[in-house]
Amino acid sequence: MARTARGRATREAFREGARRVFIRDGYLNARLTDIAAEAGRSPALLYQHYEGKEALLAELAEDFSEQLQARIAEPYRSGLSPVAALREAIRLFWLHYRQHLAEIIGITQAAMIDPAFAARWRDIHRSATELIANGVRAAQADRYCPGLDPDIAASALAAMVEQFCLTWQYHNDDPHTALTDDVAVETLWQLWGHAVYWTDPLPQRPTDTDPTGTATS
Fold it and tell me: What's the rounded mean pLDDT across residues 47-57?
């Protein structure tokens, strides 16, 4: 369908309708009729733009990732030191997840049941983890985190931050604890910073110990 102004407005209405339904019902329970109703459009018109909710979510996921990468790249282009840029990028990451929680709900639920979507999300997501890996390599160029595998470290750091955002912004496992943006960002920064900006490796774990805790050969 031609991307006329009217067509773009219609697609955006469906996207916003999907976001509201994903937040309210979750992706797995979302129905196209509900999305169309939230958009104020007919289901038949929705099918003219999207083959189904899977295609709609894939478009939302791709846009989410592109916007996130552009947003967290900003601090590194602003002249901040690498450490200050990292902390600001973490803050922007936290805020972006909260602003796009509907997409996160959809991505998380769809990836659990749809191998094709999970594979597509990994491809979409790969460029984000590559940015993190490049940050680890830059730290290693300054003699930090010697011996750390940048790609594996990037995967671990991304998983930590994403799960933290999902836990506190969606699941909220501890509703009695008020988590401010400042506390959330400082917590993530401290964990990430200590994971990368170190120079002395941890002691090697003994392969065996006797009952007193003394290492044996």
Answer: 92
